[in-house]
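tokens incoming
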């Protein structure tokens, strides 16, 4: 089985052409994601045929669970599909079917190579039951929900970008926050029926936020595209940022644009191929 390892702002996945081959993708994701005995990644993304779009993205987290969407992954998927000859390399945009809906990806080309993309990430979901967050009859948007975890007093905002996010803005440096300890507790808290992605943030200015992410099913990651979008939506609704924000993550920078209301979030970020290879799969 041929594969390509790629990353977007450090959020790395193994990419496989699933048009003409079929495996237990969940099992494969668990294997390739292991950074000691596998290839090493945050998960697996499979390019598949779509009945409605140019391409279908099926993604799995490092623990084998299937995710709805990956903002960094969808950019790399289009670059992978162009390289594999699956889609037209000259097209101005590509439509991608995901479990979070059909999204539009506009490649950024430099010297005949795709180096990044701008993605229409859809309209953010703020209603608790649709995120989902188990808080019945609560007015929304919910931007300051109090939650104490291991002595830490968190004030959470809840946003879905097709997948659920709990967003906390903190005063202390995000680098000092014990995300490896608090993250898994928040992810698996009873408030979240489908678990949750958790972002901690320092708002540096109206145009810049520093973010760290604990991703549902993958743990600490270098970046999260949907997470960056959720952070900017929450910050905008709280009135602390403008319509275009640079989100600084451990693996790089994503540019997020959003106008309040029923407008789509626009995410722009890089694409990078790490290496290609072949894997004997299934293992004997």
């Amino acid at each position: 089985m041929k594969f390509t390892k790629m990353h977007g702002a450090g959020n790395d996945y193994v990419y496989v052409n699933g048009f003409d081959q079929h495996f237990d993708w969940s099992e494969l994701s668990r294997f390739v994601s292991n950074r000691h005995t596998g290839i090493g990644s945050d998960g697996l993304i499979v390019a598949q045929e779509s009945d409605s779009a140019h391409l279908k993205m099926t993604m799995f987290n490092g623990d084998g669970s299937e995710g709805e969407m990956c903002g960094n992954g969808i950019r790399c998927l289009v670059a992978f599909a162009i390289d594999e000859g699956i889609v037209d390399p000259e097209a101005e945009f590509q439509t991608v079917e995901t479990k979070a809906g059909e999204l539009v990806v506009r490649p950024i080309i430099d010297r005949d190579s795709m180096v990044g993309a701008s993605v229409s990430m859809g309209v953010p979901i703020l209603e608790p039951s649709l995120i989902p967050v188990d808080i019945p009859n609560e007015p929304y948007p919910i931007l300051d929900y109090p939650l104490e975890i291991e002595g830490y007093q968190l004030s959470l905002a809840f946003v879905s970008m097709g997948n659920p996010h709990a967003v906390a803005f903190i005063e202390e440096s995000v680098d000092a926050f014990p995300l490896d300890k608090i993250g898994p507790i928040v992810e698996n808290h009873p408030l979240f029926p489908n678990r949750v992605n958790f972002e901690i943030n320092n708002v540096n200015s109206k145009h810049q936020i520093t973010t760290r992410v604990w991703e549902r099913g993958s743990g600490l990651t270098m970046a999260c595209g949907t997470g960056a979008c959720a952070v900017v939506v929450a910050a905008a609704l709280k009135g602390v940022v403008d319509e275009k924000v640079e989100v600084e993550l451990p693996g790089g920078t994503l540019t997020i644009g959003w106008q309040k209301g029923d407008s789509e979030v626009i995410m722009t970020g890089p694409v990078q191929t790490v290496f290609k290879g072949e894997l004997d799969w299934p293992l004997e």
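note: DSSP finds four helices and 18 strands in the chain.
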